[in-house]
Amino acid sequence: MISTLLVAQLALAQVGVIEGEVVVVPDPSGQGHTTNNLIAGLGSTLCAYASKGVYSVKPDVFDAIVVFTTHPLSGMAIGSPATPKGTVVRAEYTSGVVWGSPLIVLQPSDFGSPQRLLHCAFMGPLQNLPANPDDDFLLPAFPTGTMPSGTTGIEVLGHEFGHHWMVLSAFDTGNGLLDALHRSDDRMPLMGMQMNRVSAAGVHYSHLADTQSVMYGNFITPLGGGMYRLSGGARKYGPMDQYFMGLLPPAMTPPMLVLDDGSGMGLIGTPLRAGETETVSAQREVRVSVDDFVRAQGVRMPAFPNTKRCFRVAFALAVQQGQTATPQQIAMVDAYRRRWEQWFKFATDRRGSSVTSLDVFAPCPEPEIDADGGVVPEVDAGVLDGGEDAGSVVEMDSGVVQPSSDGGDDGRIDTGKIRPGCGCGASDAVLALALLALLRRRKLHSN
Fold first, then answer.
1. What ranges make up the beta strands (E) of 126-187?
2. Cβ atoms within 10 A of the Cβ of 437, count?
3. Which residues form the domain of 275?
4. Do residues 188 and 148 both lie within one domain?
5. Tens-place pLDDT, residues 416-447
6. Are residues 347 and 223 in the same domain?
């Protein structure tokens, strides 16, 4: 006879069910969709809950877990806690310098990972996401209805995954001062307090930064006379992103153009969609180099090329109390899973790859990169039996992404702007000051 205590324990356990390549994690008690942890928030705690469900059926072999929920998390349709969010589980860097958010708000044990998991991306309610990952991610419109955000569903995932490395970096142009001109800034005192601009700036790129990135910013073309054209385009992980991710060597990472409109601060702004343009004026150009980031934060460790380039990612669907996941909901998560492998390859200019199979023995081959960060073409497969040429999979090195007037295009994906606010709350900025001050002290003590 099963004891009452055991029944209660089973009801509270996060026990996953494998459905194809997706792990479905029921929440029979409702505890996964509630939290009293105000620092972590529901996005992080639900990520942790679902991750434990993944590890109930699979070993600790994943670098990241992506979590969706069937729960509407209603209130504000896309407000916190329904907002997608990226949560750092572990920093993979041996130097102790975290290039992304310093907010490791939960312990790895909370995710059920003894040694491997690096990151968890919370995608929010399925009802808030487009069924087709390449369609617009909709936001609520005032006073009713919805409007396109300018970003696609798959870009939301790329954005939250990217928060493992970006964007809380500071730079030092050589004057001994930390600067965050390249980061978004609403130019208002944080929570009524005037704070150091480095800590008050947001964890996204400035509207006036030529990032070409899914992490915000724009494509910028100088027009002369202090005027510049901002454009939308095919957003991916820009050159500086790829340096932070360990996919590009410093020598092959071009400086990032940032415009100063006279405020000396970054600017929060909705990134432009492909085909949209905006003309702005600036008092000066700032070219932020890898050396400027190194002065502020030290050398990235591990350094290129001794960095991870293939990421094993599991996809999970958390199911609200009293509900059962439908085949349509599972299929929608699987659509994002399949699209992610394609998009990540595109977004990293083929310098990175991702494997989403739940088969723990599935290979996770890292792209072969030369000393300059170029992608080495795959070897010709030769001739098949019967005389048919199997051909060769020659992946051209896209090199360093350069700005263009239209931002470029991958030939298929209509990418665009990302509305500020992805679950990266004000607490990121509050605690950022402490981290940056610590980094500064470490640098001074080491000199």
1. 136-140, 146-152
2. 14
3. 174-296+402-430
4. no
5. 333 444 655 444 443 444 444 444 444 434 44
6. no
CA angle (81, 86, 87) in 5-degree steps: 95
DSSP string, 96-121: S--SS-----S-GGGGT-SS---EEE
Is the torsion defined by CA of 238, 243, 248, 254 positive or negative? Answer: positive
Give per-residue pLDDT as tens, 193-226: 656 788 888 999 999 999 999 999 999 999 999 9
Query: Where do we find the tokens 């609403």?
Result: 186
Global pTM value: 0.83
What's the domain count of the chain? 2
337 and 243 assigned to the same domain: no
Tally Cβ neighbours within 10 Å of residue 181.
24
Helices (H), 64-196: 153-162
Q: What is the pLDDT of residues 227-255, one digit of tens each?
A: 999 998 888 999 999 999 999 999 999 99
Do 432 and 178 form a contact (C-beta atoms < 8 A)?
no
Task: Determine the 3-state secondary structure of 435 from DSSP.
Answer: helix
C-alpha to C-alpha distance for 370 and 61, rounded to whole angstroms: 27
Would residue 226 count as lying in a domain? yes
